[in-house]
Write a structure and sequence with these properties.
Strand content: under 5%
Largest sheet: 2 strands, antiparallel
Distance between the termini: 12 Å
Order of helices and strands: HHEEHH
Number of strands: 2
Helix content: 55-70%
Number of helices: 4
Strand order of the largest sheet: 1-2
Mean pLDDT: 83
Length: 101
């Protein structure tokens, strides 16, 4: 079994990705119906909204990407929070996950 340190990073990244997606839904940047329709067509391809880059004058989707620049603080915060909890809380869940693999 891998060390708990690596698992904490995986849990933090997964949690951050979910937070990113939920933010997009709550701010109406992404619609549930749009995602469901894309998934029902066999290939999940979600089109991110675009905004005007005032410097270049081009439409870009960079503010909506799951990138290090946008999500490092959140991920680090989750790692600190998870690290402050007793290891036993996550050990059982991680063990069960490995049993399913």
């Amino acid at each position: 079994m891998p060390s708990m340190g690596g698992m904490l990073g995986i849990i933090a990244l997964s949690t951050t990705a979910i937070k990113c997606a939920l933010n997009m839904f709550t701010e109406n940047d992404l619609k549930v119906k749009q995602v469901l329709v894309s998934g029902s067509q066999g290939k999940l391809a979600i089109k991110l909204p675009k905004v005007l880059n005032k410097t270049t004058g081009k439409m870009i989707n960079a503010p909506f990407l799951f990138s290090e620049a946008h999500w490092t603080k959140v991920t680090t915060s989750f790692i600190k929070s998870i690290s402050s909890k007793p290891a036993g809380i996550f050990f059982t869940q991680i063990s069960l996950s490995y049993a399913e693999l």
